[in-house]
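REQUEST FORM: STRUCTURE PREDICTION
Request ID: SP-0412
Submitted by: Lab K.M.
Chain count: 1
Length (residues): 222
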Amino acid sequence: MLTNTLIIFIVQVPIMLFLSLILANALNSKALKFKGIFRTSLVMPYVTSLVATAILFGIMMQTNGLLNGWLSKINVSPVPWLTDGAWAKISIIIIMTWRYMGYNMIVFLAALQNIPEDLYEASSIDGAGKVRQFFSITIPSLKPIILFTGVLSTIGTLQLFDEPYNLTNGGPMDGTMTFGLYIYRSAFQNGNFGYASAISYILVVIIVILTLIQFKVTGDDD
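STATUS: Completed
RESULT:
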C-alpha cells in the first residue's frame, strides 16, 4: 500500500510537472500559432469525468485493446497493462500524467506571462541561448509556482483513489493498492472505521512531511 503510493508519487509527480513546464514554455512562445486550440486540447483531460477517463483507458488497455493493437502493428508483443503489478502502476502513472498535465501547464503559463521580457532581452544581449534562459531565468522565477503545483500534486497523488479503484480495484494482487483505496476498503467494505481513521491520520502526517521537504528544497532561502 505505502510502497505503491510512494512509487507512483516519486515517478509521476516530477514527470508531470516537468512536462507541464515544458509545454507551458512552448505555448508561451510568440511564434506559436493557434495557441487557443493547443491550450484547450491540453486542458480537456482535466475537465473530463474521472470515471469516464478510467473506463476509456480500461478499454484501451485491455489485452486485445487499442494500445496493444497499435503495438502489434510494429511487431511489439502485447503489454499486460492492467494484469501485471508493475505495468498496472505504469498505466496509472500514464493516465494521471495525461489528466493533470494540462491543469499544471495552465498554472505555469499564467506565471510565465508575468515574467518581465526585459530579463530575456538582457540575457540575449549577453549571449544566453534559450536553454540557458530556461534554467537561469524561467525556473528561478517560477520557484513559488513550482512549489505550489508540487504541493497540490503531492496531496492529490497520496490521496489517489479513482484511477486504481475504477481500473484495477487495487489489483492485480494488490499491485495498485493505494492509501486512498485501502482506507476506503477498511472503512466501507470491512466496516473497520477506527482502523481506517488511524490510517488516515498517518496519511496526513506523510503529506505534511513531504510538503515540508518541498518547502525546504523549493522554497526561498529566507
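NOTES: Residues 85-112 form the longest helix (28 residues).
Reviewed by: T.R.
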